[in-house]
Amino acid sequence: MREGRQDRARRVPLRAIWLVIGLSAHAAQAADFDCGGLLRMHGLMRNAARVCGFSRYNDAIVARAQSCYETLGSLQGARALRAGAEEFSALVTLRSQDAVCPDLLRQFPMVVRR
Question: What is d(CA 96, CA 91) in angstroms, rounded to the nearest whole number?
């Protein structure tokens, strides 16, 4: 069962990568892509930025997340953000902060920086 959790932990960042790629394609409107997924990625990366001490966060992602939050509404938007933050916490529990933070920084240079 532990291997299944580790596989899931590795897939979480990959899902977020696809969301960032979609964001950088500059979709015309928030409804053109998975706003729930973007907000989950945003929740994950915002939590990571706070815990890992990342100092820069992509302003375009913040703007898109705000648009998505408005599109989904506060209840659904807040749930998606919390789900992303919880995914980060699960990754840290599974792999440790010392392993997760450098991986996220390496995998998402277009999102966060030190």
Answer: 7
Eight-state DSSP code of residue 20: H
**Full residue range of the structural domain in which residue 86 is found:** 2-113
In the chain, pLDDT over 90 holds for what percent of residues? 61
Helix (H, G, I), strand (E, B) or coil at 87: helix
- Say if residues 64 and 39 touch (Cβ distance below 8 Å): no
pLDDT of residue 114: 83
Assess contact for 51 and 92: CB atoms under 8 A: yes
Whole-model pTM? 0.71
| Strand, helix or coil for residue 112 | strand
Q: Rounded to an integer, what distance in angstroms lies between the CA atom of residue 18 and that of residue 20?
A: 5
Note the pLDDT of residue 17. 55
